[in-house]
Amino acid sequence: MRQTLFRAMFGLAIGILSASSRAEVSFRKHVIDPAFRAEAVAAADINRDGKLDIIAGENWYEAPDWKPHKIRTVEMKDGYADVRFDVPEDINGDGWVDLAMCHRGPVMEWLENPKGEDRPWTAHKVGESVSSEPMIFADLDGDGHGEYIGPAEPREVRGCTLAWWKAGKDPTQPWAMMRISTDRPCGCDHGIGVGDINRDGRLDVLTDRYYYEAPANPTTGDWNRRPLERSITHQAVVYDFDGDGDQDVASGCPHDYGLFWYEQVPGPEGKQAWARHTIDDTISQLHALAGADLDGDGDLDLVTGKRYKAHAAGDPGTDDPALLVWYELSRARGEATFTKHVIGDDSGAGYVVVPVDLDGDGDLDILAASKKGVFLFEQVGKPELLPLFDGKTLDNWIGDKSVWRVEDGAIVGRTDTGLKSNNFLVSRDKYDDFVLTLDVKLVPDSANSGVQFRSVPRADGECVGYQADIGQRYWGSIYEEQGRGMLHSGYEGRGEKALLKEGWNHYVVYAVGDELRVEINGTVCTDIRDHKANTGVIGLQVHSGGPTDVRLRNIRLRKMGR
Predict the structure, then answer these.
(1) What torsion do the CA atoms of 515, 521, 522, 526 make, to the nearest 10 degrees?
(2) Using CB atoms within 10 A as the burial measure, which of 121, 184, 294, 557 is most buried?
(3) Nearest to 538 by CA among 461, 421, 450
(4) Is 90 exceeded by the pLDDT of residue 543?
(5) Is 416 helix (H, G, I), strand (E, B) or coil?
């Protein structure tokens, strides 16, 4: 499964701003450039030195001292910088990061990295859209390369339609435009976004009136239109905010007050419907919105900021403080609540806000650019990330190497003929309070596996303790191996509902104190209290029985304090 729920369109220390949560989150503000360069910002390793640099306006800023290097000339028009977004990607496949960008006018183009030469980058025209404000760049067809998505046809002719632009074999030539919808209007004045609304593993396209379901072949198939009325709201984040098994949407007002989330609920005659909930009605001009796990508890929080002087005058709250904020998501009993934390009060955010681990210390920092300058908000303190898997070896694990191995950056448990008894790969160390995140693929879907936690390995090869279940009818359940059996079978089959069969699925195992929680692809499958065990090993299981191939990658354990 593509784990792309969102994508960034993807100094001098002058103070510390703090926020309180279950995991303390604090930020230190760095002014990368005090001048207004653009309202778009991005991060990428431009010069291939292994460090993430910053791109904003006419410059890229070289880490770690943020020395500016000019890559283009950015025209200022009526008080606005002529850049809507910058997305780093190796577009021509030469091993150097290029830049997909969109002007405020109709032109989309990409800038070619000059491979270490300190000179302006060569621009290649992609095409033209009738309105750049809602434009985004995302991998719509899942081929590993980004595409432009936005409005087509003049707005003056009964509203614009919706299209996407894809590169051919030679990306320096104009990109092919393909229709998503010929509806007029399609509702793409502002809020275009992407996300897997129907959980089929493909990115659907959202506007502020509808969403369009991606066909199996987005190039030739029909995009079915579904209602999703969000009024005039901007960038959308798709996520199961209340953890009930279906996807929800969050977005904010670009020229008024308000940040909202839209809960997917049953409508009349069982049809899909949406209920709007207010997250915050005290902040205005929200153009940028991103989902990111800022506090390390395994679910997505929201990051946004006031776009300072989005319009020179006329918008409600134009002269309010330029806040940059994050909203901590908490989920309980099928309800979502958001706690507001102020990151900074004099930067805001422009068209995009970028959560990224810029310094490589294991937590997420925040990049923002606005009419007040270019800013890095460094998350203070290094989280205690415990090494479980380096993507190459099983050095931190004990188990039968005829069953367990490493392939393509993943731990693989495989039996072609079946096993008479369960087989476990267990960690060398014990862990008590933590958040464990990993991606899992199980083939065939009828096979069975699991992740042991707070468990004890036995001399006979069995493992005793809690297990986050992996397998048909049991996805997301908590089972006590060699003990009490099923402790919780999952809420109403949510695991099956959230699952992409025989694809990659994102697991979260939360064990802090007596709270035990399992999530799959953002959906809360099990949340219980149990105090029988408070420490133990992590274990990976291949269940007895028929042929099994289970793969686990991106395994990350973060120690949590109570």
Answers:
(1) -30
(2) 294
(3) 450
(4) yes
(5) coil
Tokens at residue 23, please?
A: 């995991």
**If 0-12 CB within 10 Å is exposed, 13-18 middle and 19+ buried, where does residue 416 land?**
exposed
> What phi and psi values does residue 494 have, to the nearest 5 degrees?
-60, -35
- d(CA 232, CA 72) in angstroms, rounded, equals 33
Q: Which two tokens stand for residue 508?
A: 């979260």
The count of other CB atoms within 10 Å of the CB of residue 492 is: 11
**CA-CA distances (angstroms) from residue 9 to 216, 404, 417, 504, 511?**
24, 39, 47, 24, 34
- Taken in order 385, 391, 396, 398, the sign of the CA dihedral is positive
> Where does 20-146 show beta strands of DSSP type E?
25-33, 42-44, 53-56, 59-62, 67-70, 76-77, 80-81, 85-89, 98-102, 107-112, 122-128, 136-138
Instruction: Give strand pairing partners of 434.
Output: 511, 559
Residue with tokens 């940040």: 259
Q: Is the pLDDT reported for residue 20 higher than 80?
A: no
- State which amino acid sits at residue 533: A
Tell me what the mean pLDDT of segment 496-513 comes to: 93
pLDDT exceeds cutoff 80 at 150 = yes
Residue-level pLDDT at 10:
31
**Token pair listed for 298:** 């395994």
- Tell me, what's the pLDDT at 493? 81
pTM score: 0.90
DSSP codes joined into one string, 15-28: EEEEE-SSS-EEEE
Cis peptide before 215 (omega within 30 of 0): no
Stretch 331-349: mean pLDDT: 94
Question: Which pLDDT band holds residue 235 (cuts at 50, 70, 90)?
Answer: confident
Pick the closest to residue 226 from 268, 263, 260, 271 (CA basis).
Answer: 271
Residue 8 has pLDDT above 80, yes or no: no
> At 498, phi and psi to the nearest 5?
-85, -10
Task: Grade residue 54 by pLDDT with cuts at 50, 70 and 90.
Answer: very high
Q: What is the Cα 526 distance to its own chain's centre?
A: 22
Residues 6+ apart with CB under 8 A from 511: 432, 433, 434, 435, 436, 453, 454, 466, 517
Query: pLDDT (tens digit, 9 = 90+) per residue, 182-220?
Result: 776 665 667 789 999 999 999 999 988 899 999 999 999
| Dihedral sign computed on CA atoms, order 339, 350, 253, 235 | negative
